[in-house]
Amino acid sequence: MMKNNRESGVCSMKAILIGILASMFFAVTFILNRSMELSGGSWLWSSSLRFFFMVPFLLLIVWGRGNLKQLFFEMKTNPAPWFTWSFVGFVLFYGPITFATGYGPGWLVAGTWQLTIIAGILLTPFFYKIELGNKVREKIPVRGLFFSLIIFAGVALIQSQHGEALSTHTLLLSVLPVAIAAFAYPLGNRKMMEVCNGRLDTFQRVLGMTLATIPVWLLVAATGYITAGPPSQNQVIQTLIVAISSGVIATSLFFVATDMVRNNQEKLASVEATQSTQVLFVLVGEVLLLSTPLPSGLAVTGLITIIIGMLLHSLFTKRGIRPKRMAA
């Protein structure tokens, strides 16, 4: 039993480290999307091109692993769940995020996105587990929620350095869409894990969700062409970078991490909380690439608070669940 708990703790720590690595690649999304908006690129192209570019890379990976046939069989068997939860997890996630970058700086979008660390926990009661042959509703992991609230408090402190200069109009159009995305992403991801039930690997699942939403992205691209014309060469190149870094690498890493702990809601919450480190990576990226001022005052306190919250999450998952004493 002790050995199993140690192995579980090691697995959880690996998942957390993979989640942090994923957040570094995810940060590219917020930096480059903001850069594209500042140069006049339409969010409709920024969102749709990313998924178009993801397809060939993922197809090559899944085909090279000999897993395409199995993926197509799964999608053909359950077409409605595949489209529904892929739409929630990808379209309702990325569309609002790219829209928001047109109305707020990258740090604001990335900071608001951290709602997802709380959203994932609050969605827990929407899922079930099997106990002694009975279907039981999952409970919100209170300790995980507490640690996530600490992290979110740190994010709020970072936002406070800049938030006073923003208008209500800017906050509404940049914060509300991202709040929707923050709930859609973990919901779509968790529901797709239920649909796949361990039968598909991470690359198959990401490719399947991408293919399922291509019809929607074609409509988005057509709207972009009608309203804004074709994308510029610069936007195409930057979106390709986002597709590889965030769409293929980060999404795959994050899905690997969540798959590793998918049967434990508390550990799943810890992995989802790693996305809070995106704020750190976005701040560094914007300072280096977009000449954003360095954080100071409350923002520094916020950074420290985020680190403390992540350490608590990591410590909790490493300890795992202590075994119950055997009855005499």
UniProtKB/TrEMBL annotation:
Keywords attached to this entry? Membrane, Transmembrane, Transmembrane helix
InterPro entries in alphabetical order:
EmrE
Pfam families per the UniProt record, alphabetical: EmrE
Q: Could you confirm whether the keyword Signal appears in this record?
A: no
Per the UniProt record, which residue ranges are transmembrane?
12-31, 43-62, 82-101, 107-128, 140-160, 166-185, 206-228, 240-261, 273-291, 297-316
Nucleotide-binding in keyword set: no
What is the designated name of this protein?
Multidrug resistance efflux transporter family protein
Protein's organism: Sutcliffiella rhizosphaerae
The opening ranks of the lineage are: Bacteria, Bacillati, Bacillota, Bacilli, Bacillales
